[in-house]
Design brief:
With 243 residues, the chain is mainly alpha-helical. The chain has two domains: 108 residues, Helix Hairpins; 125 residues. It has a four-stranded mixed beta sheet. Strand 3 and strand 4 form a beta hairpin. 15% of the residues are buried.
């Protein structure tokens, strides 16, 4: 297996090239992600509103049907008034008619309230759908732009990714994990060469003894100040010639 320090420095070279290609896409990837997230959130709101609207429709229709059924009952009771034999039966039927009519009024009021709420929510739903359509159109346009830009560098990007993966497979998972952690924390610079006796990342002077050890290229060593992986300047120059 090739020396891990050389491999890490070479890996970083490919990562930088891939990053440069990604930067040429500008803000498009972020814009596409943002628009996609907006669409998901809007769709969730639309679904919730539609569920509430359906509930109000169902409740309003049920109240109306209940009122109609009660109205039929009232008509039937009124006919029974002509057949009563005493005041007690008359009073009982009359009370039932009054109760039913009051209930009808309540049912109709309830139906109107739910219909009004339904109309209110429907207006909000229409606004959300219009916004959803607008963002969807914007997303389609941005995705087309991103695909066009990506297409230009697709072959180069695939080749770079292929070469990067070949290098990564020669490194242990633990080494890759350390590299990724430092690279993430240090703005993409995990492995830096010594320059004029100083760390190429933080520019702090490196002890001469450490500089000598780095030339041996036998194990991974870190800058005592910034924590980056160090590589001897001569070895970095050799890697730069092949990458």
């Amino acid at each position: 297996m090739e020396n891990p320090i050389r491999l890490l420095y070479l890996l970083q070279k490919y990562d930088h090239k891939l990053m440069d290609l990604e930067e040429e896409k500008g803000d498009l990837p972020g814009i596409v992600r943002n628009l996609s997230d907006q669409l998901k959130e809007l769709q969730s709101q639309i679904d919730e509103l539609q569920t509430n609207i359906n509930l109000h429709i169902t409740t309003s229709e049920k109240s109306t049907l209940d009122a109609e059924a009660l109205s039929d009952r009232v008509e039937s009771l009124k006919k029974q008034l002509y057949e009563v034999r005493n005041n007690k039966e008359y009073d009982a039927i009359t009370k039932e008619i009054n109760d039913a009519e009051n209930n009808i009024t309540q049912k109709l009021v309830n139906a109107d309230e739910h219909e009004s709420k339904q109309n209110e929510l429907q207006s909000s739903l229409n606004d959300l759908k219009e916004k959803h359509e607008s963002i969807e159109n914007d997303l389609d346009e941005r995705q087309s732009e991103l695909q066009s830009v990506s297409k230009i560098h697709e072959e180069e990007e695939l080749q770079l990714q292929h070469e990067r993966d070949k290098i990564a497979r020669q490194l242990s998972p633990d080494t890759i994990a350390v590299y990724d952690r430092i690279r993430s924390a240090k703005d993409g610079k995990a492995v830096v060469p010594i320059k004029r006796g100083a760390c190429g990342g933080c520019y702090k002077t490196v002890p001469p003894q450490l500089n000598l050890l780095l030339r041996k290229n036998d194990e991974i060593r870190f800058c005592e100040n910034c924590g980056r992986i160090l590589i001897a300047e001569e070895i970095a120059a050799e890697v730069n010639k092949v990458a």
